[in-house]
Amino acid sequence: MATRKRKAEQGFQVGAALRDNSLTLVLLAAFAVSLLGQALTGWQVENREAVKHGGHVADLATYLVSASFLSALFENWESEFLQMAAYVVLTACLFQRGSPESRDPDRPEADEAETKQHTGRVPWPARVGGFVTALYARSLGIALALLFLICFALHLVASASAAREEAVRHGLRAGSLAEHLGDAQFWFESFQNWQSEFLSTAVLIILSIFLRQRGSPESKPVGAPHAQTGD
User: Fold this and answer.
1) What is the pTM of this model?
2) Res. 97 pLDDT band, cuts 50 70 90
3) Does residue 170 sit within a domain?
4) Residue 163: CB atoms within 10 Å
5) Could you tell me if residue 129 is left (phi over 0), alpha (psi between -120 and 50 degrees) or otherwise beta?
6) Interhelix angle for 139-169 vs 67-93, to 10°?
7) Which structural domain, as residue segments, surrounds residue 82?
């Protein structure tokens, strides 16, 4: 009897953990599926181009560490972290009346007052005060900005390596990393993703003024006026 009860409690705890983390788990699963799809289809495209030009067909493991795959991978990650970093920082200082994604421009001081009404255990960096608390108060934006810079650097290195390999195949001079940083091709790769990220974020903010999604914290309540700002 006790064993059965213990198993039931363990099953409940597992179920509760899955429920409590379901959003992250589903997004990570979608990421894994998408990454696998990118790897497999990119590998096929790469080998198709190699066959077309009489080159060497690579196995999947070789392709996954190739400059072309890593360049495309970090190119996308870079734009996502830039979007998130900009979004977190800009929503802290700018406003959009009517959007649940914005602070209320008529009550900007209310947000600071509400931060003092904590429930549960306060994280230690928020308790110690001084520089530690000031840094912690901006840690989300800083972390996202650092992730952007890391991915930007990795994209630059991988893209430069891919450009050098392409130059060697065609008997051309391979440029340096600094030269590639100033090359239009590298910035074309970056800007084509950056613009789409900023557009999609702006569209979400505007649509959230007039449209609703019941149950989502990214939406105002269904009956809320369009002019209501914040959640």
Assistant:
1) 0.89
2) very high
3) yes
4) 22
5) left
6) 150
7) 66-109+125-231
Eight-class DSSP state of 218: T
pLDDT at 7 over 70: no
- Whether 1 shows a pLDDT value over 90: the answer reads no
73 with 193: CB under 8 angstroms? Answer: no
- At 229 the three-state DSSP class reads coil
Residues 42 and 139 in one domain: no
Whether 218 and 104 have beta carbons less than 8 Å apart is answered as: no
- Looking at the fold, whether 86 and 2 belong to one and the same domain comes out as no
Q: Say if residue 18 is in the same domain as residue 103.
A: no
Same domain, 85 and 4: no
Q: pLDDT digit string (tens) for 14-48?
A: 888 999 999 999 999 999 999 999 999 999 999 99
pLDDT of residue 65: 96
Which residues, other chains included, contact 77 with Cβ-Cβ below 8 Å and sequence gap of 6+? 147, 151, 155
> Looking at the domain assignment, is residue 118 inside a domain?
no
**Are 51 and 73 found together in one domain?**
no
**Is residue 190 located within the same domain as residue 95?**
yes
pLDDT at 13: 81
* Amino acid in position 196: S
At 137-193, the pLDDT tens digits run 999 999 999 999 999 999 999 999 999 988 888 788 888 999 999 999 999 999 999
Question: What percent helix, strand, coil does the chain show, rounded to 5?
Answer: 70, 0, 30
**Residue whose entry in the numeric block shows the structure tokens 């360049």:** 71
DSSP 3-state of 194: helix
Name residue, tokens 């950056």.
194
| 125 close to 136: Cβ distance less than 8 angstroms | yes
